[in-house]
Specification:
The protein is α/β, with parallel strands linked by helices. It has a single domain, classed as Rossmann fold. 38% of the residues lie in helices and 21% in strands. The chain contains seven helices and eight strands. The strands form two sheets. Strands 6-5-1-7-8 form a five-stranded parallel sheet, with helices on both faces. The protein has a three-stranded antiparallel sheet with strand order 2-4-3. Helix 6 links the parallel strand 7 and strand 8. The longest helix has 11 residues. It is globular and about 35 Å long.
Length: 156
């Protein structure tokens, strides 16, 4: 993995609901295009600009999805995005809650990271604050444009 950035972040953990997907259309979110996936993922809109950003930066970072979504849905998403996302953490399957500081230590250990090497992107401010208390860097996702600006600043 190339380290094109000047900071220590090597891994980025994305929340799935409200960050990478929405159940209703938003300005930057587009429906799933693949026909089979459309049948399985009806009414799921993906955050195309954020996914495109991840694609263009996958040589520099490892990307993970950490979500409370249904584990079966997450496995399908993992297959759809396998070239981009290295792994998947399901809070339902693992019990690792983003609102618990200890979960971040377990995630760091599982992926052989120092907490400062990880960045969480989440729409829940409680999860962002908990990640920061655990030593992760974090972005509170409000909208795609703001998230991309924050990524540019943090990863500069």
């Amino acid at each position: 993995m190339n380290k094109a950035n000047n900071n220590s972040i090597s891994s980025i953990f994305f929340d799935f609901n409200q960050v990478l997907k929405r159940s209703a259309p938003q300005t930057d979110f587009a429906p799933v295009q693949d026909q089979l996936s459309q049948q399985l993922l009806q009414n799921i809109f993906l955050n195309q600009p954020l996914i495109k950003w991840a694609k263009t930066h996958q040589a520099n970072f490892k990307f993970y999805i950490w979500s409370a979504s249904d584990p079966d849905l997450l496995q399908l998403i993992k297959v759809l995005f396998k070239p981009i996302f290295t792994g998947l953490i399901s809070t339902r399957a693992t019990g690792l809650q983003k609102s618990e500081v200890a979960s971040y230590g377990q995630i760091a250990a599982q992926f052989k990271l120092k907490p400062a090497e990880a960045l969480l992107i989440d729409d829940q401010i409680e999860n962002v604050q908990t990640a920061q208390r655990a030593g992760f860097q974090a972005i509170h996702f409000v909208n795609t444009a703001d998230c991309l600006r924050q990524l540019d600043i943090i990863l500069a």
